[in-house]
Amino acid sequence: MPAVSNARTHIKFILLMIAYFFFVIGIANPQIGSKLKKVERKGIDLVLALDVSNSMLAEDIQPNRLERAKQSISKLIDNLRGDRIGIIVFAGKAYIQLPITTDYAAAKLFLSTINTDIVPVQGTAIGDAIEMAKTSFNENDHSKAIVIITDGENHEGNAVENAKEVAEEGILVYTIGMGLPDGSPIPVYNKYGNRTGYKKDKQGNTVITKLNENMMQQIAAAGNGIYVRANNTQAGLRKVFNEINSLEKTEFESKMYSDYEDRFQYFIAIGLLLLLIEFFIFERKSKWARRFKLFG
């Protein structure tokens, strides 16, 4: 190919490779700088105690009591600003699902794993959940609150006394009743997640789970909090959180961090410039190069 310049072909290839190199560096988003900023967090310490007993599978609140509670908690986490949150699950016993943290992404991740199989012992040990929540708080002067989300059925222990004790230590106790007073049967599912019927008692009668509203009101009154009943339009957590949000927020964390500045744009610009130069370099020889006849 007499009209093609081998040198120009090599130059175009080298320019392309260098351009790609700068593009790769740019995509890696190099950062420089060591700008220091002071971050101050003000908020409250909040522990959510969620009932995971089988009665929370009742569908008087759609899609069911437990899933509706989880959806509301997820929305609550999205609205937190500087507050610390912890999650406790309970049925016949109480367990810490998530220690108090400001890592909201982790909170939503742990929340998504909650189901009725997470606690092997059935029941509704609200008192144990309150005691565990109290021990979850750090020893500080921050505003503290416990939110109990349950249907209150199969109540065990002395939840009212426990709520009164923590209230004396400045920890408020709020309750949210999941369910309707008329009640609903408890679905039974097989290992494949298919419904096989409804839970029955020893006499073969379908078990109807009803909201123990009186118990929930007593616990909230003893804990200097409020009680809210969930329904199919709202789960009550927003009203409770608005009440909690009115508490005095205290500064609980101050830290310094480096705010680095992105420098990817310079590498991308160099890469684009090299591509532009490569585009205007033609593979054909220039007029002066054609004077040298290398072919007969």
List keywords for this structure.
Rossmann fold, two-stranded antiparallel ribbon, alpha/beta, 296 residues, six-stranded mixed beta sheet
Gyration radius from CA atoms, angstroms: 32 Å
Kindly identify the CATH topology of the largest domain: Rossmann fold
Q: Given the C-alpha coordinates, what overall shape results? A: elongated
Task: Look at the helices and sheets and give the structural class.
Answer: alpha/beta
Order of helices and strands: HEEHEEHHEHEEEEEHEHEHH
Describe the protein's architecture and organization.
The chain has 9 helices and 12 strands. The protein is elongated and about 100 Å long. The chain has a 6-stranded mixed sheet with strand order 4-3-2-5-6-11, sandwiched between helices. A two-stranded antiparallel ribbon has the order 1-12. The two termini are 13 Å apart. By secondary structure, the protein is α/β, with parallel strands linked by helices. The relative contact order is 0.21. It is 35% helix and 26% strand.
Architecture blueprint of SSEs:
Elements: H1 6-27, E1 31-43, E2 45-51, H2 65-78, E3 84-90, E4 94-101, H3 104-112, H4 126-136, E5 144-150, H5 159-168, E6 171-177, E7 184-185, E8 187-189, E9 195-198, E10 208-209, H6 213-222, E11 227-229, H7 237-245, E12 250-262, H8 264-279, H9 287-290
Parallel strand pairs: 2-3, 2-5, 5-6, 6-11
Antiparallel strand pairs: 1-12, 3-4, 7-10, 8-9
Helix pairs in contact: 1-8, 2-3, 4-5, 5-6
